[in-house]
Design brief:
186 residues, alpha+beta, 4-stranded mixed sheet, 6 helices, 38% helix, flat
């Protein structure tokens, strides 16, 4: 991250994220509800950090016999930005489980924020700019040919840690327009 970007986010973090619930607080509420429902929890840490430097993770709550023949799976956060709403539904569901026992033949598995990076950064996609619900590729078949992908790569890419940042959006759009029109790059 270049110094100008650091300065921008430091000065504007609250301005852009004030209306959004915080990832850590939402995660803590889920964990509290899961434990109150008697769940066993497993944490899967994400390699990247959130916009406030917080640790990101997907938590999996298991309630009931893990060897039960029937499983009910509830997932939130496939589209990261929608994760807060899904998390609220999961928390309400976990609260409802505190008041009743599960049948012996059922195991409930609650996957909290399967796309923690997208949830924390308020993005639909994950850290690799992949929409987990729509960018599915069947690798057992030939990969599709997308000749125009390179023209848009810089616009849609999310930088990886330790790598140089992609061009600014304005420059990327200008370069994309040139590539589409077949003009040489200046």
């Amino acid at each position: 991250m270049v110094e100008s970007d650091r300065k921008f986010w430091k000065e504007n973090m609250n301005r852009y994220f004030i209306e959004a619930p915080g990832f850590t607080a939402q995660r803590e509420r889920f964990i509290e509800a899961a434990l109150a429902a008697g769940a066993d929890l497993t944490e899967f840490q994400h390699p990247m950090r959130g916009p406030r430097g917080e640790m990101l993770a997907t938590d999996v709550a298991l309630i009931g016999d893990p060897l039960a023949p029937k499983r009910f799976i509830v997932i939130s956060g496939t589209h990261g930005i929608e994760g807060y709403y899904g998390s609220e539904a999961q928390i309400a569901f976990l609260h409802s489980l505190q008041k009743r026992a599960l049948p012996a033949d059922i195991c409930v598995i609650v996957v909290h924020l399967i796309n923690p990076w997208g949830t924390a950064w308020l993005r639909r996609v994950n850290k690799d700019n992949v929409d987990l619900n729509r960018n599915y590729v069947a690798f057992n078949e030939p990969l599709p040919d997308n000749a125009r992908y390179e023209a848009f790569h810089d616009i849609s890419s999310v930088p990886r840690p330790g790598r140089s940042r992609p061009p600014t959006r304005r420059r990327a759009v200008r370069n994309g327009d040139r590539k589409i029109q077949g003009s040489p790059r200046s």
